[in-house]
Amino acid sequence: MSQTDPELLLQELGGWDWDLCRRELPAVLPRLLISFPGGRFGCWVASEDWTEHIRVLRILTEMFLPHISLADLEQTFFSKVLPKTLQLFDNLMYELSSEAKGLTSQNTELCSTVRTLLQASPTMVQLLETLTGCVRYVCTLQECVPLESIRTLPSSVLYVIKNTFTHCKDSESVYCGHLHLISDVLQATFKEAYSLQKQLMELLDMISMDSASTEHNITDMVSVIHTVLEICSVISNMDHALHANTWKFIIKQSLKHHSLLQCHLKHSDILSGLCKDTLLSFRSCLQLAEQMKMSEIQEGTDLRLFQKTVKLCRFFANSLVHYTKEFLSFFADSCSQLHQLFLQIYSKFPPSLYAPEISEVHRDEISRVFLVALDPLINQLLPFSPFMEQVLSEKLDLPPEQQLPQCLVLVTIMDKLSSQPEEVQTLWNTGKSLSLFSALFFSFQQCSGELSFPVCLPEVISTGQPAVPITLYHYVCVHLCSFIASTLPSHFPQLEYALLDAVLGSSMITSLLAMDSWCFLARYGTAELCAHHVVVIAHLIKTWPSDCYQVSALGVLLRRMLFLMAPDHQAKLAHKFPPEEEENLAVWQHISLKALNPDLRKRVACQLCVAGLARCRRWLNSRRAVGELRPVNTALSVLLAAYNFAGDTLEAELQASILGVLGQFWTFLQAKQVSDEPCLQQTLCLLLHLLEFFIQALDVQLIIQVFALQSSLFQLDPPDHVRLAMVDFLSSMGKVFIPQEAQRQVAPQLSCLFASLLADQTWLIHQHALEAFMHFAEETSHEDVVPQCLNSEETKNKVVSFLAKTRQVEETTEARTERMKQERITCSAQFMKMAGELESTGEPLAKRACHPPSEEQYKSAVGTMEGAVEAVKLLLRKGLPPPWLAVKLEALHTAIAILRDSVR
Asked: What pTM, to 2 d.p., does this model score?
């Protein structure tokens, strides 16, 4: 065949009709395939030849393809034509990119180069149109198309589509700032590639696969889905509709051929792509909402784009739900992605401190359209053990902006668990490393910034009423209590452990949350459960050293829970911990006697005062060693509790005895010693609080002693808790008439103390001092002392502002948000330090001098042993012991016998 034969053939073919093409197909098709891209058409050297290449391709697809049976398409046509078509496409793309580089050179051929590109682009469009027509024709053959009949077609077309979209996406960099010269033809190229993909997806929907499908068919379909997934990553920011339809195809085909493809698909890649595109769309929503908030424009193009983007978010949420439902078992290694999806969404959405500022209307629309659609995903993940392990992991190490989202995720899970089967509840409530209860308390503790701000969340308080904003603390407490109400009895050990651990923790607000929840449990549960918990807490208080901060927290819990006890259980508690016995004073100092019925309250108050007086007198009549003050402080605390809650029930003679004992303490207290000894500081605070009850019965000499000690101590810069005790005592001085002989000494000290406390830089002391001064000024008969307390203009102005209830200059929301973020860092470091998680970088502490153990240390150690015995008894009641317990108890019995013999 000569060089001109292909040209003559093409000219001759131009006059052939349909029937002639069908008849001559066997003879002409081989000649056309040889000449495409062989001979002159295979040179690929000049862009003007591409039109003839496309002409050959169109003749093949339009004149001869329709005469080939479906069974012969792959072998006869696609396997031979499409590889050469891809070669044509690659060369065309190469020259486009090469010519584009010429646009950067400022030479005389620039205009010619641009014209060449403009001529090339329509050729690309024609190539895409030809492929689209080819795919469209196959769609008309029959309803179900066997994949083996068109094996080469999907992969070839997808290759063209992917590279065309990539070229369009990179056009800004490819054309080096001259994109405007060819933007129209690039847009036409994009649209044609869009049409080609749409047509291919229609064809692939017609593919028939069943259980008898060959391994090659399965591999080919998997390859198709993975290639379309790659296309998704290319077009994610190019066109919303195209992006959504492409993902829709992936999900649809994966579900359609579920049984055949499930073990071959790259589920982690598909899930990762879905999560990534969901987040990208969500962030786009927030950016648009933020722009509209800043520009104060709530309509127009931005609003329509915002609404489309929110709907795209909903589409991705629904896709995640559908895909996860079908392929959850393959997500064991991808749970961190799903967890991070929720965390990142919540971290950028109100009420997060790290969320952009958007209008309430846009926030509600995102929540209503997108977040509601995403919510069922958590329901599907609840039975999945790997997801539970991820969410409840102790090693999450989340950044500050994801601490609140983690807390909200846990609350959401709690809300949903009650409707789950028992095995799912057991999965979460028992956990692998942490239970859901413990994880929530730990997560809540990390939200110091949001709790201090405080952020608010919507909550329906009354049925039928709209949601109202409530603080984060209130929100978590309500949902936690609701969850506790639905907790199965078999999960109470995990609940009780988490509650106790949180109460004893280093975070005060987390401890308070645990107390509120525990009190709800006491009220919601049986009276016997409440009584059991009170006894356990009382035992813990009794056996632990009183200077542990955890004892204070337990004391607050005990005080609150006593109000929830049945009267007969209160009487049993008084019998179990007799108030007349000094060893039980450590328990009773924390109890509010108001919780008891009048008769029991009067009896217990009297017994406590008698026991407390006895302990104080025994110390006062001894060598008054500071090391033995701890039980004395306990006795003083008990006396204070009795006066706080049952002072009106005490007989006059007993009150006189108490005042007499209190007076004896002031005879030996010295400012320097109090300043150096924390134990004496506590004694002083208790004495000051007790004297408030006797303020009008104090003799002149005692008043002089009290003020002399306070004045001397203030010069030594006492700690805050001592200053607060002084403030409270000064507040009560308004009720006292100071005799003439004492005024010269007491009045200057009184005014000096008030002036110093009003100028205190600690906001808490300053605020209490203002309140105390107001009460004193209103009640005192010594009006000449009042102005002496205000020794500076600054103090006067602060007092005047306080009395006038003038609000100070408030910080902006932005400034407050930034301050909360910084405080979070400080709080987190402190919590880690208190939990012993920070390694010390300083020098080792100096060794302390050894002292012989005191009687109280022996009592504390023995009390701990008794508490442990009680704990073992409780465990034995709940179930069978482990086999090793009998051996261990025997060893302990032997050790105790040795100890007993050593003290004889």
From this structure: 0.82
